Amino acid sequence: MPNEDVKIGTVDGDLARWFGNPGRLTVQRAIAELRAGRPVSLSAKGFANITVAAAEMLGGARIAAWHRATGGAPGLILPAPRLAHLGVAAEGPSYISLTGLTDDEIDTLLLAVEPTVPVFEHRPANVLEVAALDLVKRAFLLPAAVVLPAAASEQTSLVHVDAAAVSDYHDQSARDLTIAARTRVPLAEAAGAEFVIFRGGDGLHDQVAVVVGDPSPAQPVLTRLHSACLTGDLFASLKCDCGDQLRMAVSEIAAAGSGVLLYLDQEGRGIGLLNKMRAYGLQELGHDTLDADAVLGYEPDERRYAIAGAMLALLGYRKIKLMTNNPGKISALENFGVNVVGHQRIIGAINPHNHNYLHTKAERAGHMLEALTRRSFQKN
Asked: What are the structural domain ranges in the chain?
């Protein structure tokens, strides 16, 4: 017999207690729907509901067909970096009317690298439309959303999500984070390493901390925040310095006696592996790393660090010495209650394949690599 004291509630408080935050759960379901090519319903206080689809999962032909079938209801939401590549100055995302645009012209707006830009009408996106774009980005799809009034859609059983839950998704994921497992995993650079697995990150992805030795919470803990890089970390790609930094960080932490490395699931500065590969393709055409991301529609850095702050808090570390070349990581962690008392640089090897990348990070993104990259360019 089931325990009669345990009941499944219908009130938000009960759902949160038994099954997690309802808003976060609906965002997770919406992400899964968008990645499967299905639309979702989105709402915000003071706005009529809209239907949202990921533009790249439809393509120009299907978007144009949807536009014709609904009497011209759908519009396209594009971010400012993509609009700038199309020659349109905008302070933020914009709503683009699809009226009069052909299948190929819509594909041009979405995908063309050297576009002959069609004439189109646009206006600043409203709060709900901005949330639609953010939701598509949370799904690690190309940052382009197709939206139409819910009344114009024949879909009646769509997953529904509130815009407030979308904007709060990362922070709520950090609040829901828990330690699920921890065990010793000896590494070549640190035989005494312990892996700590956290459940509850963005997109249901587990997060990992590697704790070396026995760091004292009373002292600043030597810490590295390392964003996952499949190509560099696993395959030793020469296009970046990520793999070098990962192994050097573990070695330096071990040499110091103790510390922690947070391995964050934020591939490609938070744009995902697929879009990182797209950006790599654009780099082959001559775009630098920041411009390549902008052509796709991304800001210079899409990463978020609330989860990193929560991981450190759950481990009991509030005071750290951060291993980084990126001043932005320092301020980001401090925004989440971490006391960064100092930092040390971690310099990977420079080679002919990554020196332009490192130079761009130094000159355009403010990373603390200036002298090193200048020396590299003098030699090359």
From this structure: 12-167, 176-379
Residues with Cβ within 8 Å of residue 292, at least 6 apart in sequence: 279, 280, 282, 283
Is 303 one of the annotated active-site residues of the chain?
Answer: yes
Q: What is the pLDDT of residues 85-109, one digit of tens each?
A: 999 999 999 999 999 999 999 999 9
Q: How many CA atoms lie within 13 A of 164 on its CB side?
A: 7
Q: Which fold has domain 176-379?
A: Rossmann fold (3.40.50)
Which H or E run includes 33? Answer: helix 22-35
pTM reported for the whole predicted model: 0.87
User: Architecture of 12-167 per CATH?
Assistant: Alpha-Beta Complex (3.90)
CA nearest to 94, candidates 116, 79, 74, 113: 79
34 Cβ neighbours under 8 A, 6+ residues apart: 40, 52, 53, 54, 57, 135, 136, 139, 141
- Residue in 134, 224, 301, 304 annotated catalytic: 301
71-81: pLDDT as tens digits: 888 999 999 99
Catalytic residue among 199, 303, 318, 364: 303
Span 145-168, pLDDT tens digits: 999 998 766 666 899 999 999 999
